[in-house]
Every structure is written in structure tokens, then in C-alpha cells.
Amino acid sequence: MYYFVEERDGGSKFGYAEVSIEPLTGEVLGVVITLSPTRRIPMPAVEGKEEFFDEGLVRVDTAAWRPNPDNVPTIGRVDEQAHLSVAENQRRVYFAINEIEPVRWIMSGPVGFGIGASSELTGILAEKGSGEWAERLASYVDRDLV
Q: pTM of the prediction?
């Protein structure tokens, strides 16, 4: 099943992300960011705050996919609109999928997720120089800034 979020002002042509979710467990399986958002924000406070980083997997509440009594989703995709944005510094790139400030980070290797105060998913964080995927993200953002 999928969670699709597009830019509130202008729709998907101004940025969107798609999150793939395992239907029974709610575990995030993957993320596709098709267009880099045009809105730039300051990088959330991540440097020097390693106590706010945990290793692990992210699971989402699957109620929005209206599971049946056997816990199988009855719809395949949830669509939302939000203000999408991107931030970067020397070490990381962050794609925000809403305006909620992350208060902690769940990392799975060099890529992770921002988590808000009410346990909501806030965005995707990638370490620069940590692999092909992160390098492509960083070059995509750099290209947009020129």
C-alpha cells in the first residue's frame, strides 16, 4: 500500500513523495521522491544531537487504509497535500513531507525518517556520500539550487 503526498500549492508538478508501506505490519518499505520541492527550509537541528537518533525501522498506523477484520487494507493508496520542502547541509539532505518539526530520527543505515512530537512521519533524511541513492538525492538538490 502507498502514502502519496503532493505539494499543497500547485500539486504534484511542484513536488511529491510516495511512501511504500507493508500492509499488515505498517513498516515503511521504501520512499520515492519524484520531484524535488521548490521550497527551501533550514536544516532541522540534527548536528551534535546524536541522542535524538535511533537505529531501526519505521512503522505507520494503517487505520487510514481502512483494514478489514483480518487487518488487510481495503484501499491501496492514501493521498494528501502538504507543504513540501527540502533542506541540506554539508552532511545531510532532508525532504520534509509536512511542516511538522522532527523531534527525533529513526535511521536505517544512511537513510532515515524524521518523527514529530505526536509520532507522525515528518520527512526523509539521507547522509551525503553514503551510497548511490544519497548521492543522487544530493546532486538533484544541488542542481535545483543553481
A: 0.80
Nearest to 86 by CA among 46, 14, 36: 36
Please report, in angstroms and rounded to a whole number, the separation of the first and last CA atoms in the chain.
36
| pLDDT tens, residue order, the chain (146 aa) | 999 999 998 888 888 899 999 999 999 999 988 766 778 898 887 666 666 778 999 999 999 999 999 989 999 999 999 999 999 888 889 999 999 999 999 988 888 999 999 999 999 999 887 666 555 555 555 544 43
Structural domain count of the chain: 1
Closest CA to 5 of 133, 104, 134, 99: 99
Rounded Cα gap, residues 62 and 38, in angstroms:
30
Three-class SS string for 15-66? CEEEEEECCCCCEEEEEEEEECCCCECCCCCCCCCHHHEEECCCECCCHHHC
* Domain, as residue range, for 108: 2-145
